[in-house]
Each structure stands twice: as C-alpha cells, then as structure tokens.
Amino acid sequence: xxxxxxxxxxxxxxxxxxxxxxxxxxxxxxxxxxxxxxxxxxxxxxxxxxxxxxxxxxxxxxxxxxxxxxxxxxxxxxxxxxxxxxxxxxxxxxxxxxxxxxxxxxxxxxxxxxxxxxxxxxxxxxxxxxxxxxxxxxxxxxxxxxxxxxxxxxxxxxxxxxxxxxxxxxxxxxxxxxxxxxxxxxxxxxxxxxxxxxxxxxxxxxxxxxxxxxxxxxxxxxxxxxxxxxxxxxxxxxxxxxxxxxxxxxxxxxxxxxxxxxxxxxxxxxxxxxxxxxxxxxxxxxxxxxxxxxxxxxxxxxxxxxxxxxxxxxxxxxxxxxxxxxxxxxxxxxxxxxxxxxxxxxxxxxxxx
Length: 353
Ligand SMILES: [Zn+2]
Ligand SMILES: [Zn+2]
Known about the structure:
Helices cover about 25% and strands about 20% of the residues.
C-alpha cells in the first residue's frame, strides 16, 4: 500500500483533471484493506431463455413488438423512452427564471446476446468486438442527426443500481443536449488542447504509466487503469492509447485490443468477490454538436457502487450536499486487489475441477 511519509494511509486531496474538481482521499481512516473473503451467495441457475423476459429472442415487448430470433447483438427503440421524437411539443409555459422545452431525442436498447444467463464479462472476446462495432454504428447514425448533440451509451448492471432484468444489455440516450459530465470533460479537454497542443487524456495515461501502480490491464493499443483521482473505490477507465474522439473512430485492430482489455477488466471485477460485480458503465465520447473536439479522448468509465461486498458507497453530505467526492479507499490499494485476481472468469471451470 502506498503510504504517507508517516506510514499512515493516504490522506490528501487529488485533482480530477477531467471533472475539474478535487477528490478528498481519506484512506487513513480504514485500518485494514478488505482482506479477500468472498460473500457466500447462492449461484442460482439462470436459464439461457426466459419466456417472460422482454429482451429474450422471440418474446413480445410491452409495445406489442415481437423480438426477432436474433443471434448476436440486437438493437431496438426503447418502449419506455425518457427522450423521444414524439415527446410532447406543446408544453405549459414556465414562469420567470424557469424554462422548459420538449424532451426530444432517441432512446434505444442494445441486447448483447440472446443468452439471458450471460453477462458482458462472460462473452467471448469476439462477441465483445461485435458489440463495440454495433455501438460504433449507433454513434455514427444517431450522432449524425441535426437534432442530436450527444450520444450517451451506458449499462447499469446489478440490482443495487436498479436493474430488475439481468438479460445483458446497454442503453442509448441520444439527446438534444450534452450530458453534464461530458460537457465538463469536453471543455477541459478543449482548453488543454488549445493551450498545450496535447490531449489531456494522453497526459493522464502518461502519468499512469509512469507511476505504474494503478494499471489493471494493458495491451498494444489499449489500457485500463484505476485513476489516481478515482472517486469510487473500484472506478476503472478503459481507453485506446491513441486519441480518438469517439469509439466510432477506432480501427479494427484498436477495436480488437479494446475488446480484450474491456473483457479483462470485467472478468477481474467478477473475480474480486466471485459474484457478478455491479456497476454503472458509461462510454465517454465527444459531443456530436458542431464543436471542435480534437482534444477529446474516448474512454469507458466504470463506476461500481460497492466499496466492499454488500456495502454501498453512500453519497451523502460531501457528494450530494457539496458536489465533491470523499473517498475512504486508496486507488493504489484497490488496483492491487483487481490485479491480484485471475484473468479467467470464475464461472469457467478448468478440466481439473
Ligand atoms: Zn432475457
Ligand atoms: Zn470520462
């Protein structure tokens, strides 16, 4: 464990260059890092097909549409969109300082596989590549629309983040506005690029490679690390090494390397506590407005809500009340935990078992 000069845990503030905010790291208060026991839990048998799952092949959805008997990635328009082309246009006028506008946009669902029982971590690398290709297509198609200024692709995984249907899938919100976090990152990236001629994310990667104690996975064209300025205990970024403003700009070999690194991170997450690891995963891609986003470096961010098994990171006074994160774990220590578990998924039985 990286320690302060006094041999205590880390107690300092770290600057988050993409969000442009301070993170308080108060890891000195935890005496011991979590020591590696797993949570006893029943590994229920989950069927490969569930007749009342609205995402399984051949099933009916609430809209009355029938899913095709798909065998790879399947994309459809969300039946309960939060933004939609037919959102109400005639709104009650807002008073004074308040303003409103129609919630136009496009919301889609992306099923990863017809298999109800698998997770992204359990897909073959080639299936992850196919998913990345599908996301590329979505970004290009939706992002090229005049009425779409940003394409947010994300996955919520696990009951603790409110997922009731475990059929592996992500969602897409193509919106008329740029989501706040992306807006901040785009502004920070553009300013840094103007001032230095370098993408800020290249400097982040460089610092991670120099410190070399928070890297979780790496190959020729991609890298995953638990950033120096992480807000969540097991926050991990996955990125191509070359700067591309979106996933859509990665070439085939970059997609292959990215898929392998993404899968390795997912497997390490699951292996940590030998359970499906809950997270919010978001693709951070440049806005599709008319801005100059040459300095924007596409990456995937994982925000796992658990600090230790069955214990959520509670967002309270500092986070909700003040807007900055208080982390009581050390990124360096958490990176050691993720690196120390096998890179083969625990559900894959070896011939000896
Ligand atoms: Zn299903
Ligand atoms: Zn980001």
